[in-house]
């Protein structure tokens, strides 16, 4: 679960990437699909005008966003003008020297970059030399950026720190993740049971409990999260290129009853709410999932199941809302008003 709060607008401007990791959830590195700079700037302008204060951070993920460095710089500069923070996730393949790393990250820091994230694990190291990752991390630290280094492993107990080096690991946030069976990892024995992890749906919820990572894909799809499995998340709330209103898309995400349950409650609560109205619905076995994000993908990856869940939640929402109101000690008049919403 991520500790940070607030909403982030995250652009995935390209699927292109210099790496070909065997666990990549989006093995489309040769794709020419991309978000144009004008599209990203237009969306940023629209949201800061129509829902001011809703977005706190503008981020970039990939693919490899540094392949579109000038676009990243331009969008971060515009975001900073609106008082928004900046974040970038990169493989660090471009950091061929310490000087190059400092020059590029300094340029982005001046544009508004506050957080730099990169990867370090055996698969990434097949494509990006460790010294380049260390160049980028060192430069980011020198510039005062917050740094996260993530590793994705096949075995519990493996760690980023052991690969990155304790000298840098002690200064950054190290995230040790396990492979999820999507994309190139389909068929790998990547389940919570195999990893020896708890599989209690009551303990599983969204990785972002407070706020949303509102992800814009290269094809214009807008998703409510930017988790490891963002490419297989079936919960698409709209598409910018299909003429869907950007403000309405974002408001639908932030007001979603489904997302509220997954963030503040759990999958167990979701199932209980749905079962009251759809008792015969079949649910996947959590033990066969890789974790909460993988389970979410399995639950909603079935279109018929997802439809039943959303219809059942619509029926369950009024009673749930009243229950929360009673717990908060609201008056009967307020409860009656809520019942009519």
TrEMBL record:
Its cofactor is [4Fe-4S] cluster. Residues 206-241 form the 4Fe4S-binding SPASM domain. It comes from the Bacteria. Residues 12-156 form the Radical SAM core domain. Pfam families: Radical_SAM, SPASM. Gene3D superfamilies: Aldolase class I. GO terms for molecular function: catalytic activity; iron-sulfur cluster binding; metal ion binding. Keywords: Iron, Iron-sulfur, Metal-binding, Plasmid, S-adenosyl-L-methionine. This is Radical SAM domain protein.
